[in-house]
Design a protein that fits this description.
5-stranded antiparallel beta sheet, 11% strand, single chain, 446 residues
Length: 446
């Protein structure tokens, strides 16, 4: 049990925050707000608290080990005493955290410069000391009677994010230690660390040790314990922070920015899943998407009509023209999109292999009548078509409303691809993943 005297520091009320300006600009300030926004059950209460904080409704903030206190006023002037409690560190946790900080001179310098090194937070978390609060770690207390985060406790948390931006020692005080005590302890540990290092550099006879050859040190490292297994893949992509504000920032399309953040999280999750899959190291890397391909991918992922419309307009396509591209993307990504839009002519060797594959597909049965135009084989009077992709796979197409539309995933041989177009085997006409609207317009004529 610590024997230090309780310490409390009071910060004067902060000026109102201008509309459109965030409350936090540092990574630790954002982490503090994320703990609030992820914990609160009622998002409207949090938004109202943000409005309270923005208008200067939070009075002076008292910070002490384990808690915050302030008076927060409603719009009608009613004052509420509001507290937010935070778990203090135990002496053992402080010992681990201070040991990590003192071991790196850069950590001490950063703290004194009012910065929190992310490496320190990561190393501390690995040692079982969560420096920043997480979900459920900000416990509200308010005389308004709410048991969860109310507008008053949310407003207090938003103002404290501004304090943390200016001085991360506020967070350390909440965890149980004042700045003066911490600086003194860090200096003591740093001096002791330097002294032990100097002593260790001496040989038993008082001379300086010759050191260890680099090859020997490298061999010793290589013989160490194996690396831990990679972390498990998260069940779903992470959720980016909400950009919901009281007023729309000038010149910023909030819906588009939020969508792009979510799309980036989804793509990062997909890439991580691929990297963790067995045999990833042996697979050839995928070619980067072109700007047009990436725009189609984004349209396929977009849930907001305005975002989809803007992306389609950027490609000079209306909704009807975009629908086949999105449908193709849902069946096979960039190769499927290429089969839709790349009307190419195979060379002689490729055509010879294609003819051999067609002959082999129906060697034991009656072959359908297929009419070829470049790399497209159309079955007579059936509304079915096969397209040969440059990668050598066959893509099934079906004629709908006067257009040839993708009808399924690719197959390695033409027989399987054409069989997938049977009503009992393939996708029903008009249904496809990623569809953005009913098909329409004029046909291709092939």
């Amino acid at each position: 049990m610590s024997t230090r005297e309780p310490y409390e520091e009071t910060f004067p009320a902060l000026a109102p925050t201008p509309p459109g300006r965030g409350f936090a600009h540092t990574w630790w300030g954002h982490s503090w707000l994320r703990a609030l926004e992820d914990s609160a059950l009622d998002g409207e209460q949090v938004r109202q608290g943000r409005r309270y904080a923005r208008t200067g409704a939070v009075g002076a903030v008292s910070v002490r080990p384990g808690g915050l206190t302030a008076v927060v006023r409603d719009r009608d002037g009613t004052a509420h005493r509001t507290d937010v409690l935070v778990q203090e560190f135990t002496d053992a946790q402080w010992d681990r955290l201070l040991g990590l900080a003192a071991a790196e001179a850069g950590h001490i310098a950063a703290l004194l410069d009012r910065e929190v090194p992310p490496e320190l937070a990561e190393d501390a978390a690995a040692a079982g000391v969560e420096l920043l609060p997480g979900i459920g770690d900000l416990e509200p207390r308010c005389d308004c009677g709410e048991w969860d985060h109310c507008p008053h406790s949310a407003a207090l948390c938003y103002q404290v994010a501004r304090l943390l931006d200016q001085d991360p020692f506020v967070l350390l005080l909440l965890r149980g230690r004042a700045e003066a005590d911490l600086v003194e302890e860090l200096e003591r540990r740093s001096t002791a660390e330097a002294g032990s290092g100097s002593a260790g550099a001496q040989s038993p006879q008082g001379g300086t040790r010759a050191g260890v050859p680099a090859a020997e040190a490298f061999a010793a490292r290589a013989a160490g314990a194996p690396l831990p297994p990679p972390p498990a893949l998260p069940a779903a992509p992470g959720q980016p922070p909400s950009l919901d504000t009281d007023t729309e920032p000038a010149g910023l399309d909030v819906d588009a920015v939020e969508f792009l953040a979510q799309a980036a999280a989804a793509e990062a999750h997909r890439l991580l899943a691929r990297a963790l899959a067995p045999g990833h190291a042996e697979r050839a890397p995928s070619a980067p998407l072109t700007q047009a391909e990436d725009a189609v991918r984004l349209v396929a992922e977009a849930g907001h009509l305005r975002v989809r419309s803007r992306l389609a307009a950027a490609l000079d396509r209306d909704r009807a023209a975009m629908e086949p591209a999105v449908r193709a993307w849902g069946f096979g990504g960039a190769p499927s999109l290429a089969a839709l839009e790349d009307d190419w002519t195979p060379d002689r060797a490729t055509l010879a292999r294609a003819r051999a594959a067609l002959a082999a597909a129906w060697a034991d049965g009656e072959a359908p009548v297929l009419r070829r135009v470049r790399a497209r084989w159309t079955a007579a009077d059936t509304g079915r078509q096969l397209r040969l992709g440059r990668e050598g796979r066959w893509w099934p197409y079906r004629r709908e409303a006067g257009r040839w539309l993708p009808a399924g995933a690719s197959a390695p041989d033409p027989g399987s691809a054409l069989t997938a177009l049977e009503p009992s085997a393939g996708t029903e006409p008009g249904a496809a993943p990623g569809s953005v609207g009913a098909a329409g317009g004029t046909g291709e004529g092939r």
